[in-house]
Every structure is written in structure tokens, then in C-alpha cells.
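Side project, low priority. Logging it here so it doesn't get lost.
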Amino acid sequence: MKVSEFIKVLEEQKNKELLFSYTKDKLVGANYHLTEVKNVQFDTTDCGGKTNFWEETHFQLWESPTELGKRDYMTTDKILAIINRVDSIKAIKKDTDLKMEYGNDTFATAVMPVKHIEFDEKRVYINLFSEATRCKANDVCGISGVEIDTESPIFDQQKPKAKLSELQEASSCNPNSGCC
């Protein structure tokens, strides 16, 4: 989901509580705050020698320990006000993919894309998912035929489609291949 698409949803769903699901049956606490907006650039080189460049925007969610037990979630209007304030200081790149950065005592901090959005009369539900890592040089390393599930939502108990041993057998991506 692009930042502009997320903003449009917030604008269309005026003054509703905004809830984030980060794993099966787990919501970011009502004591969360949008604490930072990050314009992020990636300038990478993969193990096959190919360079890549892309940009993303990360919204950091943080649960305030001084507001434990809070029952009311931030509203779409409040989040929009923060986004507009940030954008007036440093332009948010609205044509980039949006990811939410979140972690707590039982969930390691992760940067998660939006899987889908649902809403009712009072609330907007943002369902996030975890992305699996993958070899970006699969065309060079010979593992392009191996199916890796990069879209599996974290709340659906991620099950890898290939074991590491199968990947190594199916590829030339091993210590002696000159690739990885």
C-alpha cells in the first residue's frame, strides 16, 4: 500500500478509532502513539552482484508505558494531524510503499507492510503482515524455481514452503558456487 492510499483511507474514515493487528489475535495497545515518520532509502548490492535502489516510508508505532490500561485508540483524525504536521516540516514521500514499525516485550520489532484494511461505523482495522527474507540474486544463484512464500500474513502461522536443505539442493547458492 502506498502512503497516499493510506492517507486517503484515513480521510474517508473520519474520526474513527485506528487499530493495528500485528499478529494473529494481537492488536497494538490502545496506548500507542505514532512517534516517527521515516523516509527510507535502500541502496543495496545482493550476493549476485546486482545493485538495487528503492524508497519506502515507515510509520513507527510505540506503546506508552505511562498509559497502560488506556481503552480509547488514536483516531484517524489524530493520525492525519500528525502526518500533516510531519509533512509540513519534511515532505513525506507519498508515492512510496508504507510500512509500520512496531515491537513490544513479546514481539520483536519488525517493519511490516499493510495486508488489508477493514472498517465499521466506529473503527478502522489495519492488518499488517511479516515479510520473509529471500535471495534477491535467485536468477544468478539458480533458486528461481523454489517457491518462497513472501506474502504469508504473520497472523496465519507462517509455514515455509521450502526447507533450507531443499533450497541448498535446488540451488548453486552454496559456499563453493562463487555466488553467496
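Brief comment: Confidence is low (pLDDT under 50) at residues 145-165.
Revisit when time allows.
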